TrEMBL record:
NCBIfam families: GGDEF
Protein's organism: Jiangella aurantiaca
InterPro entries xref list: Cyclic-di-GMP_PDE-like, EAL_dom, EAL_sf, GAF, GAF-like_dom_sf, GGDEF_dom, Nucleotide_cyclase, Rev_trsase/Diguanyl_cyclase
Entry's Gene Ontology molecular function annotations: cyclic-guanylate-specific phosphodiesterase activity
Ranges for domain GGDEF: 341-474
UniProt-recorded name of the protein: Bifunctional diguanylate cyclase/phosphodiesterase
Domain EAL stretches: 483-738
């Protein structure tokens, strides 16, 4: 098979440059030197024996792909660090490969392999066209030109490139018009993609623009399933077609040559040439058109794949909305053009969606999210943006919004719309939402700043109980700065020895005797002074420091109790430490506790572990395994904030606990509230039934003490008896037992 290097080389050069390769070769399976090459290994720095090794590897790759049944590219990583990929080329008596070489050892991407496969098909088309010559010169040069033009085309520049290609085709063939049409199954019609030259006066409606397949014109009826080239001339009597062309262009009669764009069993469209008046279209011209049509089919498949990947990269899979990446890039582009663009960013989050998932299942939950997404999209204008960031979090950009009042009104309208019941999977579901709003102000803002400020406003809306709109303002800005400061300093607070433990005593209400102390963490902030846990614990959780801080608290509490025992004849009987669920189910937590007891010489009963009821109920299986391990050590176990976690009697019976700590919300107004007294009485009776001790939290007045004693709860802690104390003051309480608190 004869192969013209001047024809193939431009194709190889375009392929090598598009795939970042140092060389591209076409080789016969039984050949020595390449038949056609582009690039040079020696000029790329390959020397001596390495060139021989590379050539042997190229020949080996060629033999492997030539011997396989399919046409999939095969890649080889050579010992010298370069990478070879080859794909089969076969036409008549020629069998070989196109082979690419990279020096940096990187694998070829899926796109690179696709370009290589397309090039192999183009090479075959060039071989076929190279056998044909006529008055229009070598048609293989035309095919090579088109192949090079289409090699690096992306969806972004597709339209421009297609017009350039059909322009060159029209000029090359001396045609008056070249066109490309697409079959649209949804419209059930043939749609004009582009034409050269573009008509200056296009009728409205355009009889050549969208032509239904069920038209009376047999030519356009045929294009839906056209499989072979089709040619007509004025003498063929296709009057309806000639009349349609006359209506669309003013040309009385034309000669037409079309070839189908076929992918598998589907005709995607047609590529056509038109000559005004009569003309003979040669077999050679039609074959060249077919080769170019095959290139366009390959291009269409590649661009479709790229568009699909692009859509996946920029859209949320569940809702079809933009994802975070698309949202950020779009808003960045807006702010680059105008940093003070009048717009508002709304951060929306559904309230209590977990209940929907837990009760109705995640399928219904997903369908609900989809319905909410559509409702949000319907609630804004076409030029506004709605994106889903994650879970039930959405972000909205309202353009041309210049005031906080306008942004707040829009947010409240959206909030009301979202709260309306939705019919999902046979269920009427109604859920409110919370929205944080920030308006792009006089000072230029970045995307991160706008999102961060909207998020802070959203958190404030959540803290207000949900179903509310909060606009970011100076007060929230100060709160944001404080939080940023906390986050920055917390990361080094433990290593800088800034954490402190305070201890709140627990008393026997009958005789005022201290029965233990609860360790409470404080932070000695370098600038803001001593901070209670409420001021920073949420930040600790958000930046994943809970485990590190929790273990520090546990060890410091053990160390302090050991110190009290060495220095006082009357130390606190035990120290209690609150442990989060994450710490409790972390690796070897039981082993860590055992190590601390041994290290500080403590009896297991001198250490109490507290965990909140809500945490126990959420992770009961994992938590129970750890609690059983701690019970095996002899550590005292307590459920904190009891009465708020909705535990059942069956669940409570499973847990190896010793103490129920009654939540302060039932104790604070105990003397005045009959309801609270009934709840506390029920908890005390429940504890007695399970042989558990009760401890009341938040005792702040003598009336509560009297009521607790009457109800049978004899142990308590609270500000009425003692506030949390530094370690050095705790011993004073232990040395001086109080009088019976009923008498205080």
């Amino acid at each position: 098979m004869k192969m013209d290097p001047e024809t193939i080389q431009p194709l190889l050069e375009a392929l090598a440059r598009a795939t970042d390769s140092i060389s591209a070769d076409v080789l016969a399976v039984d050949g020595g030197m390449p038949l056609v090459s582009w690039g040079s290994a020696s000029s790329a720095g390959v020397k001596g024996k390495d060139i021989t090794v590379m050539r042997d590897a190229i020949r080996t790759a060629t033999a492997e792909v030539a011997g396989q049944a399919g046409n999939d590219p095969i890649e080889h990583a050579a010992p010298s660090g370069y990478t070879i990929v080859a794909t089969k080329v076969a036409y008549r008596d020629f069998v070989g490969s196109i082979c690419l070489v990279r020096l940096d050892g990187r694998s070829y991407s899926a796109k690179d392999r696709e370009l290589l496969s397309v090039s192999a098909q183009l090479c075959t088309a060039v071989m076929e066209a190279g056998e044909i010559t006529d008055q229009h010169s070598r048609l293989d040069a035309l095919v090579t030109y088109v192949a090079a033009e289409l090699m690096g085309v992306t969806a972004r520049d597709l339209a421009e490139t297609l017009f350039r290609v059909i322009s060159e085709l029209g000029r090359y063939f001396g045609a008056d018009t070249c066109f490309l049409r697409h079959n649209d199954p949804e419209l059930q019609a043939s749609v004009l993609v582009d034409e050269w030259p573009r008509r200056l006066d296009v009728p409205d409606p355009d009889p050549l623009g969208i032509v239904p397949w069920d038209t009376e014109d047999p030519i356009f009826s045929m294009v839906r399933d056209q499989r072979e080239p089709f040619i007509i001339r004025p003498s063929d009597g296709q009057l309806s077609y000639q009349e349609r062309v006359r209506a669309g262009s003013g040309v009385p009669e034309v000669s037409l040559a079309t070839v189908p764009l076929i992918h598998g069993d589907t005709t995607l469209g047609v590529l056509g040439l038109i000559h005004f008046g009569d003309r003979i279209w040669t077999r050679a011209e039609v074959r060249a058109l077919r080769a170019i049509a095959s290139l366009l089919v390959q291009l269409d498949a590649r661009v479709a794949a790229e568009e699909s990947l692009h859509h996946q990269a920029y859209h949320d899979e569940l809702t079809g909305l933009w994802n975070r990446r698309a949202f950020v890039e779009d808003l960045n582009a807006v702010l680059e053009v105008d940093p003070r663009a009048p717009l508002a960013v709304l951060f929306a989050d559904m309230d209590r969606l977990k209940t929907v998932n837990d009760v109705l299942g995640h399928t219904v939950g997903d369908n609900f999210i989809q319905a909410v997404a559509q409702r949000l999209r319907d609630s804004v204008r076409p030029n506004d943006v709605v994106a889903r960031l994650a879970g039930d979090e959405f972000v909205i950009v309202l353009h041309e919004i210049a005031s906080t009042s306008a942004a707040e009104r829009a947010a409240r309208r959206i909030l009301d719309r979202v709260a309306e019941p939705l019919e999902v999977g046979g269920h009427a579901i109604s859920r409110s939402a919370s929205i944080g709003v920030v308006v792009n102000g006089d000072m230029p803002s970045t995307v991160d700043e706008l999102l961060g400020n909207a998020d802070v406003a959203l958190l404030e809306a959540k803290e207000r109980g949900g179903d509310s709109v909060v606009v970011f303002n100076d007060d929230l800005r100060s709160k944001l700065l404080v939080r940023a400061d906390l986050e920055l300093r917390l990361r080094s607070a433990i290593s800088n020895n800034e954490m402190r433990l305070y201890f709140q005593p627990e008393f026997d209400l009958r005789d005022g005797r201290m029965t233990g102390v609860e360790a409470l963490v404080r932070w000695q902030h370098p600038e803001r002074g001593l901070l209670a846990a409420d001021a920073f614990i949420s930040v600790v959780e958000e930046i994943n420091l809970s485990a590190e801080l929790g273990r520090w608290v546990l060890e410091e509490a053990c160390r302090q109790l050991a110190s009290w025992k060495r220095t006082s004849p009357v130390p606190p009987p035990l120290v209690r430490v609150n442990i989060s669920a994450g710490e409790l189910i972390s690796a070897d937590f039981v082993g860590f506790v055992a190590t601390l007891l041994s290290r500080y010489g403590l009896a297991p009963a001198e250490l109490g572990i507290e965990i909140t009821e809500s945490t126990v109920m959420r992770d009961i299986d994992d938590v129970q395994a750890t609690l059983n391990g701690l019970r095996g050590l002899g550590v005292t176990l307590a459920i904190d904030d009891f009465g708020t976690g909705y535990s059942s009697l069956a669940q409570l019976k499973q847990l190896p606990v010793d103490i129920l700590k009654i939540d302060r919300s039932f104790v604070s107004a105990l003397a005045e509230s009959s309801g609270d007294r009934a709840i506390v009485a029920a908890i005390v009776r429940l504890a007695e039934a399970f042989n558990l001790t009760t401890v009341a939290e938040g005792v702040e007045d003598p009336a509560a003490v009297t009521t607790l004693l009457d109800l049978g709860c004899y142990r308590a802690q609270g500000f009425f008896m003692s506030k949390p104390l530094p370690a050095q003051v705790v011993l004073e309480q232990a040395r001086n037992p109080g009088v019976p608190l009923r008498m205080m």
